[in-house]
Design brief:
about 425 residues, alpha/beta, Rossmann fold, 2 domains, 15 strands, disordered N terminus
Length: about 425
């Protein structure tokens, strides 16, 4: 792991937390073999030499290992948080003290501080941004568009962020190329499904200590994150109901063995409801009005807009902290609704986020994405790209190799067959 002392300014909670953070970064590193291989090559080749990178990501042990790999490649990087509640303060301190990487992130930071940190990262005058929700790109397209002319491009980690960026692309407002890392198969097939599935349950259980076995668990949204969450909840013994607005996804949920119904019909049955849609206003007044007493609601989408918290407050006569990360809303009719992590990203606000072994592939995509943008400087249009399929396959191959798993290879005859049209019945 490359080390160094920082002379740049940072804003972290307590630099004395660094020793704990360093141990945790090293623990995550053990389960990130693909990123380690990339870091080793980066250290030798320096493909990012002199490149200014600003990253707006969840400040976790896994992200720390990505930042260390970027530095090994020669990048001059800074990091800020992509969610006010997702920062691990000991990790932020270690990145600054032990690895010389400026960090602007404090767990629980206020809205104004959050955006001050985003602008501090943009003050680095990046040539590449790495986003988890498109906050850096949004600021560049809004208040900081003078930075766009020097941008080689950006990478985006989340479904939510890609939705925002595709809106810019459709309106022909995108100012530079963007790599949709989220759309890489080695990202969304694994990170979104298995990572979100496990870490969301981890956040809900840590916060509430609820027994899932036998509980009615409602999953709002059946994208890759919803698929993973529904699968894992069923594995814990829950009775899973899926709600959807997309007919094809709803049909898939049925075929996968889940109940599907409108959310308003599911709410009176639900013990736990979790939103994973990437959309706004999913749980609304009409849903709060029919929830059972003691219902637990949480969100695992990137932004805290999926649950209409202002409306929940209006319906309540009292709000109190029931336990850490759980707010109890006492409605006027005496029913109680328990909101986890303030409606923010529950797997990071109330737990540690995805396991390192799945983030290994996601951050391999991020590291290779930065290299791709550098190599293709001046060749890319102002639109959204995905990493080449060969790169995706390489990451999957390296992951299998690290797991000690071998697979068959196509024979010459099979390769020919798959690329020919002549052979028939």
């Amino acid at each position: 792991m490359s080390k160094g002392k920082s002379s740049a300014k940072s804003d972290v909670k307590d630099i004395k937390l660094a020793p704990v953070g360093k141990r945790r970064i090293e623990w995550a590193r053990r389960n990130m073999p693909v990123l380690q291989l990339i870091e080793k090559r980066f250290l030798k080749e320096k493909p990012l030499k002199g490149l200014r990178i600003s990253a707006c990501l969840h400040v976790t042990t896994e992200t720390a290992n990505l930042m260390i790999a970027l530095k090994a490649g020669g990048a001059d990087s800074v990091l800020c948080a992509s969610n006010p509640l997702s920062t691990q303060d000991d990790v932020a301190a270690s990145l600054v003290r032990d690895f010389g990487i400026p960090v602007f992130a404090i767990k629980g930071e206020a809205h104004d501080t959050y955006y001050r940190h985003i602008h501090a990262a943009l003050d680095h005058k990046p040539q590449i941004t790495m986003d988890d929700g498109a906050d850096l790109v949004s600021q560049i397209h809004g208040k900081r568009n003078s930075l766009a002319s020097q941008m080689l491009g950006s990478t985006e980690e989340t479904t939510t962020g890609v939705i925002r960026l595709r809106s810019l692309e459709r309106k022909k407002l995108l100012l530079f190329p963007v790599l949709a890392v989220n759309d890489s198969k080695t990202k969304h097939f694994f990170d979104n499904r298995y990572g979100t599935g496990q870490s969301t349950l981890d956040g809900v259980i840590r916060a509430t200590n609820v027994l899932l076995s036998g509980a009615v668990f409602v999953v709002c949204g059946y994208g890759w994150c919803g698929r993973g969450l529904a699968q894992k909840a069923r594995g814990m013994g829950a009775q899973v109901i899926v709600t959807e607005t997309d007919a094809l996804k709803a049909l898939e949920a049925i075929m996968d063995g889940f109940q599907v119904m409108p959310l308003r019909k599911a709410c009176p049955l639900a013990d736990v409801i979790v939103t994973v849609t990437g959309n706004t206003g999913v749980i609304r007044k009409e849903h709060f009005e029919v929830m059972k007493d003691g219902a637990i609601i949480a969100n695992s989408g990137h932004f805290n807009v999926e649950i209409d918290i202002p409306e929940l407050k209006k319906l309540s006569k009292r709000v109190r902290i029931a336990r850490e990360f759980v707010d109890e809303y006492l409605l006027r009719d005496g029913r109680r609704i328990h909101l986890v992590a303030g409606g923010r990203l529950v797997n990071l606000a109330a737990a540690e986020g995805h396991p390192a072994s799945v983030m290994d592939m996601s951050f391999a995509n991020q590291a290779l994405g930065a290299e791709f943008l550098k190599k293709n400087e001046g060749r890319l249009e102002r639109k959204i790209y995905t990493l080449p399929e060969a790169m995706d396959n390489k990451i999957a191959f390296l992951k299998l190799k690290a797991m000690g798993i071998a697979i068959d290879q196509l024979t010459a005859e099979q390769r020919s067959y798959l690329t020919s049209w002549e052979l028939g019945t």
